[in-house]
Amino acid sequence: MESTRLFDPATYAHGVPYELIAEMRAAAPVQWVEEPSVMGWEEGPGYWAVLTHELVNRVLRDPETFSSNQGATQIRNPGTDDMLRFVQRMMLNQDPPGHTRLRRLLTKSFTPRAVARLEEGIAERAKLIVDKVESKGHADFAQDIAAELPLMTLAEIMGVPEQDRMLLFDWSNRVIGYQ
Fold first, then answer.
1. Crossing angle for the helix pair 112-136 and 148-158, nearest 10 degrees?
2. Comparing C-alpha atoms, which of 61, 59, 55, 71 is closest to residue 96?
3. Cα 44-31-69 angle, rounded to 5 deg
4. pTM above 0.85?
């Protein structure tokens, strides 16, 4: 099935598969996508891919019909009710008004002006990270580079003291690591 390719990480190896998405959109603007077992992840329940801007906006504006809180894909619901309630409080899994309240708090930190103020610090942190890796002579790219730069940047935005920033990394991994 063509739509299954949308879920396959290999489809994204060379960037966003715009051609595939355009073909799918031309065939049907909403399609069911199977989630086969991939890279050690067990098979998922599948999901509806909404492929036009107009329809995506309709979905986003109708949380009573299209709820983020009622189940997720890729980030699996945990097995216990206590953990499920915890996961449902994450911004990703919230519907309005909770999601709206959290989004309002965050958007102030990501305006073009606010992001421009971060650029110099991001460049400095990137250089520090590369220098540290270079001096070691080896690196775990995912942990030493890909995780550290956004973590350090978000920690700065959130005002997390430098000595506590790795705690943020640890806590984030624990929250999603139940999978």
1. 140
2. 61
3. 55
4. no
Answer for the pair 50, 30: CB distance below 8 angstroms, yes or no. yes
Give the model's confidence band at 165: pLDDT under 50 very low, under 70 low, under 90 confident, else very high: confident
Contact 33, 47 (CB under 8 A): yes
Integer Cα distance of 49 and 176 in angstroms: 23
- pLDDT tens figures, 29-56: 999 998 888 777 778 788 889 999 999 9
CA distances to 32, 42, 173 from 35, in Å: 10, 9, 23
Report yes or no: 15 and 31 within 8 Å, Cβ to Cβ: no
Overall residue count recorded for the chain in this entry: 179
pLDDT-based confidence at residue 143 (cuts at 50, 70, 90): confident
71: left (phi over 0), alpha (psi -120 to 50) or beta: left
What residues contact residue 106 under an 8 Å CB cut-off, 6+ apart?
Answer: 91
Burial 32-56 (b: 16+ CB within 10 A, else e): ebebeeeeeeeebeebebbbeeeee
